[in-house]
Amino acid sequence: MGAAKVQILLVEDDEVDREAVRRLLGAPYEVVPAENGQAALRYLEDARPDAVLLDYRLPDVDGMDLVPVFARRFIPVIVLTGEDSPEIIVESIQRGAQDYLVKGHISHMSLSRAINNAIEKVELKRDLAEQQEKLAEQAIALERSNRQVRALASALTLAEQRERRRISQILHDHVQQMLYGIQMRTYLIGLDTPPEAMDKIRDHLREMEQLLNEAIQSTRTLTVELSPPVLKTEGLGAALSWLANQMSKLHDLEVELDICDDYQLPSEDLRVLVFQLVRELLFNVVKHAQVNQARIVLKEADGRYILRVEDQGIGFNLQTVAGLEEDRHGGFGLYSVRERLALFGGSLEVDSSPGAGTRIEIRLPKQAASYTLGVLQGV
Fold this sequence. Notes:
10 strands, single chain, 10 helices, alpha/beta, 56% helix
Protein backbone atom coordinates (compact mmCIF):
# COMPACT_ATOMS: atom_id res chain seq x y z
CA MET A 1 0.00 0.00 0.00
CA GLY A 2 1.43 3.35 -1.03
CA ALA A 3 1.82 6.32 1.24
CA ALA A 4 -1.23 8.58 1.55
CA LYS A 5 -1.08 11.61 -0.66
CA VAL A 6 -0.79 15.08 0.90
CA GLN A 7 -3.71 17.13 -0.36
CA ILE A 8 -2.78 20.69 -1.26
CA LEU A 9 -5.35 23.37 -2.00
CA LEU A 10 -3.72 25.71 -4.51
CA VAL A 11 -5.52 29.07 -4.59
CA GLU A 12 -4.08 30.72 -7.68
CA ASP A 13 -5.82 32.63 -10.49
CA ASP A 14 -2.97 32.30 -13.00
CA GLU A 15 -3.19 29.02 -14.93
CA VAL A 16 0.52 29.01 -15.77
CA ASP A 17 1.50 29.42 -12.11
CA ARG A 18 -0.93 26.66 -11.12
CA GLU A 19 0.60 24.25 -13.59
CA ALA A 20 4.13 25.20 -12.54
CA VAL A 21 3.39 24.50 -8.88
CA ARG A 22 1.62 21.22 -9.73
CA ARG A 23 4.67 19.99 -11.69
CA LEU A 24 7.10 21.11 -9.00
CA LEU A 25 5.23 19.21 -6.32
CA GLY A 26 4.61 15.93 -8.09
CA ALA A 27 4.15 12.83 -5.90
CA PRO A 28 3.17 12.39 -3.11
CA TYR A 29 1.13 15.58 -3.35
CA GLU A 30 -2.39 15.85 -4.70
CA VAL A 31 -3.05 19.39 -5.90
CA VAL A 32 -6.62 20.72 -5.82
CA PRO A 33 -6.82 23.95 -7.85
CA ALA A 34 -9.01 26.93 -6.94
CA GLU A 35 -9.04 29.84 -9.38
CA ASN A 36 -10.20 32.43 -6.84
CA GLY A 37 -11.08 32.99 -3.21
CA GLN A 38 -14.75 32.04 -3.55
CA ALA A 39 -13.82 28.69 -5.09
CA ALA A 40 -11.48 28.06 -2.18
CA LEU A 41 -14.22 28.85 0.35
CA ARG A 42 -16.66 26.54 -1.43
CA TYR A 43 -14.10 23.76 -1.29
CA LEU A 44 -13.74 24.24 2.47
CA GLU A 45 -17.45 23.57 2.94
CA ASP A 46 -17.03 19.88 2.12
CA ALA A 47 -13.32 19.12 2.53
CA ARG A 48 -10.26 19.91 4.55
CA PRO A 49 -6.89 20.06 2.74
CA ASP A 50 -3.63 19.18 4.47
CA ALA A 51 -2.19 22.58 3.49
CA VAL A 52 -2.97 25.66 1.39
CA LEU A 53 -0.78 27.47 -1.12
CA LEU A 54 -2.37 30.91 -1.31
CA ASP A 55 -1.66 33.55 -3.93
CA TYR A 56 -1.36 37.02 -2.41
CA ARG A 57 -3.29 38.66 -5.26
CA LEU A 58 -6.67 37.20 -6.26
CA PRO A 59 -9.29 38.67 -8.61
CA ASP A 60 -12.24 38.54 -6.21
CA VAL A 61 -10.85 38.90 -2.65
CA ASP A 62 -7.71 40.01 -0.89
CA GLY A 63 -5.63 36.89 -0.32
CA MET A 64 -4.63 38.17 3.11
CA ASP A 65 -8.28 38.10 4.18
CA LEU A 66 -8.36 34.35 3.53
CA VAL A 67 -5.37 33.59 5.75
CA PRO A 68 -7.30 33.89 9.06
CA VAL A 69 -10.09 31.70 7.62
CA PHE A 70 -7.65 28.82 7.16
CA ALA A 71 -5.77 29.60 10.37
CA ARG A 72 -8.96 29.33 12.47
CA ARG A 73 -9.46 25.82 11.05
CA PHE A 74 -5.84 24.89 11.81
CA ILE A 75 -5.06 24.46 8.12
CA PRO A 76 -1.43 25.32 7.27
CA VAL A 77 -1.12 28.31 4.92
CA ILE A 78 1.85 29.24 2.76
CA VAL A 79 1.52 32.58 1.01
CA LEU A 80 2.81 32.84 -2.57
CA THR A 81 3.97 36.30 -3.59
CA GLY A 82 5.26 37.69 -6.82
CA GLU A 83 7.68 40.02 -5.07
CA ASP A 84 9.98 39.80 -2.08
CA SER A 85 8.20 42.46 -0.01
CA PRO A 86 8.93 42.62 3.75
CA GLU A 87 5.53 44.27 4.33
CA ILE A 88 3.70 41.38 2.69
CA ILE A 89 5.80 38.82 4.53
CA VAL A 90 5.17 40.41 7.93
CA GLU A 91 1.44 40.82 7.30
CA SER A 92 1.01 37.22 6.17
CA ILE A 93 2.77 35.85 9.25
CA GLN A 94 0.83 38.17 11.54
CA ARG A 95 -2.46 36.98 10.06
CA GLY A 96 -1.60 33.33 10.67
CA ALA A 97 0.38 32.04 7.71
CA GLN A 98 3.17 29.61 8.48
CA ASP A 99 5.49 30.58 5.65
CA TYR A 100 5.82 32.51 2.40
CA LEU A 101 7.49 31.80 -0.92
CA VAL A 102 8.45 34.12 -3.76
CA LYS A 103 7.13 32.61 -6.99
CA GLY A 104 10.23 33.25 -9.04
CA HIS A 105 12.43 31.35 -6.59
CA ILE A 106 10.35 28.25 -5.90
CA SER A 107 11.91 24.80 -6.27
CA HIS A 108 10.62 21.32 -5.50
CA MET A 109 12.83 21.15 -2.42
CA SER A 110 11.87 24.58 -1.06
CA LEU A 111 8.18 23.93 -1.72
CA SER A 112 8.21 20.48 -0.06
CA ARG A 113 10.18 21.76 2.90
CA ALA A 114 7.81 24.70 3.39
CA ILE A 115 4.73 22.44 3.22
CA ASN A 116 6.14 19.86 5.64
CA ASN A 117 7.27 22.52 8.11
CA ALA A 118 3.91 24.28 7.91
CA ILE A 119 2.00 21.05 8.56
CA GLU A 120 4.25 20.25 11.52
CA LYS A 121 3.86 23.76 13.00
CA VAL A 122 0.07 23.66 12.73
CA GLU A 123 -0.10 20.18 14.25
CA LEU A 124 1.88 21.43 17.22
CA LYS A 125 -0.32 24.53 17.43
CA ARG A 126 -3.48 22.42 17.26
CA ASP A 127 -2.19 20.07 19.95
CA LEU A 128 -1.34 23.05 22.12
CA ALA A 129 -4.78 24.59 21.55
CA GLU A 130 -6.47 21.30 22.47
CA GLN A 131 -4.39 21.06 25.63
CA GLN A 132 -5.23 24.66 26.50
CA GLU A 133 -8.92 23.97 25.90
CA LYS A 134 -8.75 20.93 28.17
CA LEU A 135 -6.94 22.98 30.80
CA ALA A 136 -9.59 25.69 30.51
CA GLU A 137 -12.33 23.09 30.95
CA GLN A 138 -10.49 21.64 33.92
CA ALA A 139 -10.09 25.14 35.39
CA ILE A 140 -13.82 25.74 35.01
CA ALA A 141 -14.59 22.39 36.62
CA LEU A 142 -12.12 23.13 39.40
CA GLU A 143 -13.65 26.55 40.03
CA ARG A 144 -17.11 24.97 40.11
CA SER A 145 -15.81 22.39 42.57
CA ASN A 146 -14.18 25.11 44.67
CA ARG A 147 -17.46 27.03 44.77
CA GLN A 148 -19.24 23.89 45.92
CA VAL A 149 -16.59 23.26 48.57
CA ARG A 150 -16.90 26.85 49.77
CA ALA A 151 -20.66 26.48 49.87
CA LEU A 152 -20.32 23.25 51.84
CA ALA A 153 -17.90 24.93 54.22
CA SER A 154 -20.39 27.76 54.58
CA ALA A 155 -23.19 25.28 55.24
CA LEU A 156 -21.05 23.47 57.79
CA THR A 157 -20.25 26.69 59.60
CA LEU A 158 -23.91 27.65 59.71
CA ALA A 159 -24.96 24.17 60.80
CA GLU A 160 -22.37 24.29 63.58
CA GLN A 161 -23.64 27.67 64.68
CA ARG A 162 -27.26 26.47 64.63
CA GLU A 163 -26.26 23.50 66.76
CA ARG A 164 -24.48 25.79 69.16
CA ARG A 165 -27.61 27.92 69.45
CA ARG A 166 -29.76 24.83 69.98
CA ILE A 167 -27.53 23.53 72.77
CA SER A 168 -27.33 27.02 74.26
CA GLN A 169 -31.13 27.20 74.23
CA ILE A 170 -31.40 23.81 75.94
CA LEU A 171 -28.96 24.90 78.63
CA HIS A 172 -30.85 28.15 79.18
CA ASP A 173 -34.43 26.88 78.98
CA HIS A 174 -34.08 23.47 80.61
CA VAL A 175 -30.83 22.77 82.43
CA GLN A 176 -30.63 26.15 84.16
CA GLN A 177 -34.32 25.99 85.11
CA MET A 178 -33.82 22.57 86.65
CA LEU A 179 -30.82 23.86 88.59
CA TYR A 180 -32.87 26.82 89.80
CA GLY A 181 -35.57 24.36 90.85
CA ILE A 182 -33.07 22.26 92.80
CA GLN A 183 -31.70 25.42 94.38
CA MET A 184 -35.20 26.43 95.48
CA ARG A 185 -35.89 22.95 96.84
CA THR A 186 -32.65 23.11 98.80
CA TYR A 187 -33.71 26.45 100.26
CA LEU A 188 -37.13 25.04 101.20
CA ILE A 189 -35.50 22.03 102.83
CA GLY A 190 -33.57 24.42 105.06
CA LEU A 191 -36.77 26.25 105.97
CA ASP A 192 -38.73 23.08 106.69
CA THR A 193 -36.05 21.31 108.71
CA PRO A 194 -36.71 21.38 112.49
CA PRO A 195 -34.11 23.33 114.47
CA GLU A 196 -32.97 20.22 116.33
CA ALA A 197 -32.08 18.53 113.00
CA MET A 198 -30.60 21.59 111.30
CA ASP A 199 -27.18 21.16 112.89
CA LYS A 200 -26.84 17.78 111.18
CA ILE A 201 -27.61 18.96 107.67
CA ARG A 202 -26.47 22.60 107.70
CA ASP A 203 -23.04 21.81 106.21
CA HIS A 204 -24.58 19.60 103.54
CA LEU A 205 -27.07 22.30 102.57
CA ARG A 206 -24.32 24.90 102.42
CA GLU A 207 -22.20 22.65 100.19
CA MET A 208 -25.20 21.87 97.95
CA GLU A 209 -25.89 25.61 97.64
CA GLN A 210 -22.28 26.25 96.65
CA LEU A 211 -22.27 23.44 94.08
CA LEU A 212 -25.55 24.65 92.61
CA ASN A 213 -24.24 28.21 92.33
CA GLU A 214 -21.15 26.92 90.52
CA ALA A 215 -23.28 24.76 88.22
CA ILE A 216 -25.60 27.66 87.39
CA GLN A 217 -22.65 29.95 86.71
CA SER A 218 -21.00 27.30 84.50
CA THR A 219 -24.16 26.80 82.43
CA ARG A 220 -24.57 30.56 82.07
CA THR A 221 -20.98 30.88 80.85
CA LEU A 222 -21.31 27.89 78.52
CA THR A 223 -24.61 29.21 77.16
CA VAL A 224 -23.02 32.51 76.19
CA GLU A 225 -19.82 30.95 74.86
CA LEU A 226 -21.72 28.51 72.66
CA SER A 227 -23.81 31.23 71.04
CA PRO A 228 -22.90 34.80 71.96
CA PRO A 229 -26.01 36.92 71.34
CA VAL A 230 -23.83 39.78 70.11
CA LEU A 231 -22.65 37.61 67.22
CA LYS A 232 -26.10 37.50 65.68
CA THR A 233 -27.31 41.00 66.43
CA GLU A 234 -24.21 43.21 66.18
CA GLY A 235 -21.38 43.84 63.75
CA LEU A 236 -17.97 42.20 63.75
CA GLY A 237 -16.37 45.02 65.75
CA ALA A 238 -18.91 44.65 68.58
CA ALA A 239 -18.52 40.87 68.53
CA LEU A 240 -14.74 41.16 68.87
CA SER A 241 -15.16 43.68 71.71
CA TRP A 242 -17.37 41.18 73.50
CA LEU A 243 -14.79 38.46 72.86
CA ALA A 244 -12.01 40.64 74.30
CA ASN A 245 -14.07 41.16 77.45
CA GLN A 246 -14.71 37.42 77.77
CA MET A 247 -11.03 36.58 77.34
CA SER A 248 -10.21 39.03 80.11
CA LYS A 249 -12.81 37.66 82.51
CA LEU A 250 -12.26 33.96 81.85
CA HIS A 251 -8.57 33.73 80.94
CA ASP A 252 -6.97 36.90 82.33
CA LEU A 253 -5.91 37.88 78.81
CA GLU A 254 -6.04 41.63 78.24
CA VAL A 255 -6.90 42.29 74.60
CA GLU A 256 -6.25 45.73 73.09
CA LEU A 257 -8.63 46.57 70.25
CA ASP A 258 -7.75 48.69 67.21
CA ILE A 259 -10.97 48.58 65.20
CA CYS A 260 -11.86 51.31 62.72
CA ASP A 261 -15.50 50.36 62.25
CA ASP A 262 -18.14 47.90 63.45
CA TYR A 263 -18.17 46.25 59.97
CA GLN A 264 -21.68 44.95 59.42
CA LEU A 265 -20.88 41.84 57.42
CA PRO A 266 -23.95 40.76 55.44
CA SER A 267 -23.05 37.07 55.64
CA GLU A 268 -23.66 35.30 58.94
CA ASP A 269 -21.44 32.36 58.01
CA LEU A 270 -18.49 34.69 57.30
CA ARG A 271 -19.10 36.58 60.55
CA VAL A 272 -19.21 33.31 62.52
CA LEU A 273 -16.09 32.01 60.79
CA VAL A 274 -14.03 35.13 61.53
CA PHE A 275 -15.24 35.24 65.12
CA GLN A 276 -14.36 31.58 65.69
CA LEU A 277 -10.94 31.92 64.10
CA VAL A 278 -10.04 35.01 66.14
CA ARG A 279 -11.21 33.29 69.31
CA GLU A 280 -9.03 30.29 68.48
CA LEU A 281 -6.02 32.54 67.86
CA LEU A 282 -6.56 34.22 71.25
CA PHE A 283 -6.78 30.79 72.87
CA ASN A 284 -3.39 30.04 71.29
CA VAL A 285 -1.99 33.17 72.95
CA VAL A 286 -3.34 31.99 76.31
CA LYS A 287 -1.96 28.47 75.91
CA HIS A 288 1.37 29.05 74.19
CA ALA A 289 2.58 32.67 74.19
CA GLN A 290 3.25 32.92 77.96
CA VAL A 291 1.93 36.49 78.10
CA ASN A 292 -1.31 38.01 79.36
CA GLN A 293 -1.70 40.64 76.64
CA ALA A 294 -2.70 40.56 72.98
CA ARG A 295 -3.85 43.02 70.34
CA ILE A 296 -6.54 42.81 67.64
CA VAL A 297 -6.44 45.08 64.60
CA LEU A 298 -9.41 45.15 62.23
CA LYS A 299 -9.54 47.37 59.14
CA GLU A 300 -10.54 47.48 55.49
CA ALA A 301 -8.05 48.02 52.65
CA ASP A 302 -7.97 47.31 48.91
CA GLY A 303 -11.34 45.56 48.95
CA ARG A 304 -10.30 43.24 51.75
CA TYR A 305 -10.92 42.84 55.43
CA ILE A 306 -7.59 42.73 57.24
CA LEU A 307 -7.55 41.36 60.76
CA ARG A 308 -4.40 40.88 62.86
CA VAL A 309 -3.91 39.12 66.17
CA GLU A 310 -0.59 40.08 67.78
CA ASP A 311 1.26 39.24 70.96
CA GLN A 312 4.71 39.85 72.43
CA GLY A 313 5.10 36.29 73.69
CA ILE A 314 7.77 33.65 73.24
CA GLY A 315 6.97 33.12 69.54
CA PHE A 316 8.04 30.04 67.63
CA ASN A 317 10.22 28.95 64.73
CA LEU A 318 8.36 29.17 61.44
CA GLN A 319 10.69 26.58 59.90
CA THR A 320 9.28 23.91 62.18
CA VAL A 321 5.87 22.38 61.66
CA ALA A 322 5.00 22.45 65.33
CA GLY A 323 3.45 25.89 65.13
CA LEU A 324 1.19 24.89 62.27
CA GLU A 325 -0.01 21.50 63.48
CA GLU A 326 -3.42 20.79 64.89
CA ASP A 327 -3.82 21.70 68.53
CA ARG A 328 -3.57 18.53 70.57
CA HIS A 329 -6.17 19.83 73.00
CA GLY A 330 -8.82 20.55 70.35
CA GLY A 331 -9.52 23.60 68.23
CA PHE A 332 -8.48 24.43 64.72
CA GLY A 333 -4.74 25.01 64.98
CA LEU A 334 -3.08 27.41 62.58
CA TYR A 335 -3.05 24.86 59.75
CA SER A 336 -6.83 24.42 59.92
CA VAL A 337 -7.32 28.18 60.24
CA ARG A 338 -5.45 28.61 56.95
CA GLU A 339 -7.40 25.83 55.28
CA ARG A 340 -10.80 27.15 56.36
CA LEU A 341 -9.92 30.66 55.23
CA ALA A 342 -8.80 29.34 51.83
CA LEU A 343 -12.27 27.90 51.28
CA PHE A 344 -13.65 31.45 51.44
CA GLY A 345 -10.94 32.96 49.24
CA GLY A 346 -9.01 34.22 52.25
CA SER A 347 -5.45 33.79 53.40
CA LEU A 348 -3.44 33.68 56.60
CA GLU A 349 0.10 34.93 57.14
CA VAL A 350 2.18 34.14 60.19
CA ASP A 351 5.14 36.22 61.31
CA SER A 352 6.93 34.82 64.33
CA SER A 353 10.35 33.91 65.68
CA PRO A 354 11.59 32.69 69.06
CA GLY A 355 11.52 35.52 71.59
CA ALA A 356 9.97 38.04 69.19
CA GLY A 357 6.27 37.36 69.60
CA THR A 358 3.72 36.35 66.98
CA ARG A 359 1.74 38.30 64.43
CA ILE A 360 -1.01 36.52 62.53
CA GLU A 361 -2.84 38.34 59.75
CA ILE A 362 -6.12 37.22 58.22
CA ARG A 363 -7.11 38.60 54.82
CA LEU A 364 -10.59 38.07 53.45
CA PRO A 365 -12.04 39.45 50.21
CA LYS A 366 -15.20 41.43 50.82
CA GLN A 367 -16.98 39.38 48.17
CA ALA A 368 -16.44 36.31 50.35
CA ALA A 369 -19.53 37.52 52.16
CA SER A 370 -21.61 36.72 49.07
CA TYR A 371 -20.82 33.00 49.06
CA THR A 372 -24.17 31.33 49.68
CA LEU A 373 -25.70 27.91 49.55
CA GLY A 374 -26.93 28.81 46.05
CA VAL A 375 -23.52 27.65 44.80
CA LEU A 376 -24.67 24.13 45.54
CA GLN A 377 -27.39 24.55 42.93
CA GLY A 378 -24.83 25.77 40.38
CA VAL A 379 -25.58 29.49 40.76
